[in-house]
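request received
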Amino acid sequence: MTVQTQNGPHEAPDPLAAIGENIKACMQCGTCTGSCANSGAMDYTPRELWRMVQLGLSDEIFASKTFWLCSSCYFCTLRCPRGLPLTEAMAALKRLAIAQGKWKEKKSTKFYLTFLDNVRRYGRVREMDLMTRYFLSLKNPLTPMGFTPLGVKLMVKGKLSMQLPNLFSAGKLDALYRKVREVEGRS
Amino acid sequence: MKNKRGSALVVGAGISGMRSALDLAEEGYRVTLIDKAPGLGGTLRQLDYQFPTDHCGMCKMLPVVERDSASQYCLRKGFFHENIDIMAATELVGIEGEPGKFQVTLRHQPTMVDPERCIGCAACVTVCPVEVPDEFNAGLTTRKAVYLPVPHNVPNHYVVDPAACSRCGECERVCPTGAIDLQLEARKAFKVLVVDDELVVRDSIKEWLEDAGFQVEMAESGVEALEKLSQGGCSLLLLDVKMPGMDGVEVLKNAREMHPDLDVVMMTAYATVETAVEAMKVGAMDYLMKPFDPEALVALVVNRYRKLLRMGEQQFEVGAIILAAGFANFDPASAPDTYGYHTFENVVTSIEYERLMSGTGPHGGKLLRPEDSQRIRKIAWLQCVGSRNLHLNADYCSSVCCMFSIKEALLAKEKSDGQVDAAIFYMDMRTFGKDFQRYRERAERDYGVRFIRSRVHSVEAGEAGCLQLRYSDIEGRMHAEDFDLVVLATGQRPPAGSDELAELCGVERTPSGFFKTEPFSFSRTAKQGIFVSGSFGGLRDISESVIQAGSAAFAASTLLHAGGGSLSRVTDDEPAYRDVTRDPPKVAAALCSCAGDLARAADFKAIAQKLEGMGLEVFLTERMCTREGLDEACRVLRESRANRVLLGACMPYVYQRKLKDLGKSIGLHPFLIEVADIRTPAFPGRGEDRARVTREIASVLSMAASRLQGIDPLPPRSVPLSRRALVVGGGIAGMTAALGIAEHGYEVDLIERSEKLGGNLHRLYRTLDGWSPQQLLEQTAAAVNKHPHISVHLEARVVHSEGQVGRFVTTLEHAGGAGETIEHGVAILATGGSEAKPQEYGYGQCDAIVTQHELEDQLQRGQVAPGDLTSVVMIQCVGSREEPRNYCSRVCCAAALKNALYLKEHNPHVEVYILYRDMMAYGFLESYYTQARRAGVVFIQYQVAAKPRVETANGAVTVTALDPLLQREIALSPDLLVLSSGIVPSNGNDELAGIFGVTVNRDGFYQEAEYKWRPVEFLREGVFACGIGHSPRSITESMAMAEAASQRALSILSRERTMGGSITAQVRHSLCSLCQLCIEACPYGARRYDAEDEVIVIDELACQGCGACAAVCPNSASVLRGYRDQQLFSMLDAALEELF
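response:
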């Protein structure tokens, strides 16, 4: 496959520019990829992702699940010989993907969204509620089956409280969330 | 040798320090060479093998002309030169005065062992109870507190490590010659008063200091302290800042009133540091922070003690100071990511590996794992540990580690017969030096060393004592591989003590801690008279260090000369030796019985009888190594009136330097005095058989006696020299060399084939560092043109040259065809090279395809405006680093970075893509590589097997390259395609080389005498090379090389006459059949056929006395003075007689 890079200063401002700015000094040594605990599950390794950022391959980047799988362990940031804020760049990609609605990786994205919604509602995470909403959002009845053994284990250890979801409770953090959205400049 | 008035101090006696010192000494200046360590040689002491020959070769640095003024043996064992005062274990602690007239203060760290009296018997080692890691083996083995700093030094004396010594005094008691003095009494007389309100603090300090041998008194309050002080006798006060009642500062004020000279050190908790600092303004000398580190506290007290008593200090005047303090190795344990260093024993640094592999290392040269002594099967080298890392304040490449690791991997292969698997993990393999690229390919192709482009992130435990490396290859596949040994290619750092040195010299430093130098110079600092030499200036391998050391010596020499330092000092003339040429040989032997020790081991009476039987006069002396012993020997020898002298003593090397004095005292030329080693046969561990020892000693002595009896008594001749230089090539290297020599007052002829001076400088408009080559050109050319000692010959070329060092006669041909003959003593070839014309990537088919020089030119002339460009592609290594031009041109990556940064600076929107193989951003260039990345230049690595493709259509260029990371083709449509085509040597090089009897290598660059040790010299004495005619290099590098070459030339020009060596070849013309085999055999080009007189002529200055000619001559017409057949036969007889 051939990559045609977009030429020139006349293009519309690249949404990736801010991230690219932080990644420019990358010299593709591969330390991040070697360090990454999740790189095996990613479709592009972190090094490949940074290369794609340098080349401005924005569509492919947002179609990728690499940055969604970043678990923010900060190993790559710690070890990068250029001192680049790689974990932050991964997070920035997540934010950008959500903001632009450009995400493709459903599982991770839905989880992040449900998680935040849960916090907004209750000020903390309610495991049962989180799980229910997450599974509902995936719209796939088979997904919960895969988690059954884990659920049982957690229940035996008393880690899951059987609270029913409160569908009508108005979140007390609504104001906070609104403000954040306002600050971040999106609706 | 004539001595000049000027003198210099060289700080650091590693390779560069020695080179700088030798350069100045050979020129006739007096040099003091000091080193902090108790031995000479710096890092090289620990290295047995060096790239590219994979063995040592340090001795090649020794003088070639006037050989007899210096030692002529293994330089790793030690060396001397009659103009160099060597002081080991000495530091520079004070500089005052101005350039040309510095008053320096040196402090000698006592080794506590008198070298004159130490006989190396090792009795002290046996009783020493202390054991510490041995620095010589990089901590892989241990040593005692009394030890030999370098096991192979000659002469080798034990020293005491004051930091490790427990002062138990055992060694002092057992030393048979009383050579050890731990100075326990002096310390006991030094009284320290410790004032602190806490008992536990007072008690611990008392204990530590008493252990260190000091006398300690205590006081618990200020009042008590003042009372004790009033009784007197205190030398040092350790004073707590915060005490109830009278506080520290108050005590300090009162105490200073009482004893204005009292030395006070404050002790403080973190909270009151500011008070302690304030206290220093009212007279405290220093402060110590609680909680105390016992070692630091004792060290500080010892320091004050030595300072107060001004121990080992001496002051003298020098004209110039050269700093050659070397470098420190990065300590991986100090980094956040340690790579398991100090956690796993099988993780070692490059230096440790070097020791592991050495015959004098912990396993006698066998490749065994440090942890469990298992055989090593797999080794991994990790590059850039502590280099190219912004976390570690190292935005630079250490320049040497790539070649270092390849060499180590190759040696592992060689030592194991190819059995060991060697893998090098790297980011860019920086093979930027002369012949580096071919060496790398040899390692990969012929030896199977694996080169893996990947940066390993950390080292983990693997199976069966192995270490596991997890890494991602360039295509993103993950690997986990086990290795027996992991070698960390640790980078360079400024050496310990550079903070103090910088402060002392008042020289500014770079953010990474290296000394700053002036534009276009690696050796001149902003402080006049203080120069930087070798790797101390940052990140150099041996060859570059040697070149740069020459450049530093040159800078110092110029200063000394300008200050009138070249005026001959009034010294006594060459001593008048007795003329013994007509006397029959009469040998006197003085044998040392080593204070009766040797006399016990062998039967000296029998030996004496035997020698007397050969017609010798024999004297027995005692301890000839001491001054008294030697004086006594002199007295008896003077009385004997013998005309040859044989000394039987322990270490011949030691006497070599004393022979001149001895000769002067008994009126005999030193080459008629011989030293024979009679100590070795009686070494411990070689059996106690007295008859055998006697036999061996007798044999050694009678061999030497036979040699002396047959020696030719004519002293070596001195030869007159023509003190004029010829420099060929008027580029920056040639101009620098010509100016350098002319500044020293000698006439120079500068030959340039084109119509103007300047060479490549005409095509360069800026450097990466932002300096102006045009300004440099203007100034240099102006200086050359108006210099009264330089005759510039433009549009001229050399057509013929003959003669030898000191007396060349060269013919020039001018533009009109007119000839001119010049007589000169030395020649410097600086004929340079130029940018190669690319043959590939569509060059010439389209105006949009240019070279780096052309781009720079077009930018300068405004033919290309950065603002008009949207995209630029640069391709590196065009036609380079593959056969037939299989070398790195070294300047093209820097040129690409320079032009890319220029474009980005003038138009941040322009897209710049650099397609490269390995970015050769060595040394401090790395920071520009970082800058270019930050500026948004995109770097795409390509493989030789999948080179970028270029297509042109209607003046538009398309470049397609394979990105190895994404494994995808990237298509680019640049406005400009810039080709980095590298440097080719100038086309006249091989012809000129032929004229001067020197050679070029297969790429057409001048072939130096030895890549590492004699980089600016040819094997042919008196001819030197510099600039890019020798190898590709930057402007500053070329200038440094030109300075080094002129310094070598100056060592010849500085004399009116010079002495040949005492051992040189001669021809017996009556036996010579003129077959000329000897001319081919001579490795130094010292022989030639004189067609006019039909004889073989020998250049006595160039001849190094190797004897190859004598061995090859079918008629025995070629003989070696000092080694005639007759002499050797009688020596053989003497040797064999004792055995049969």
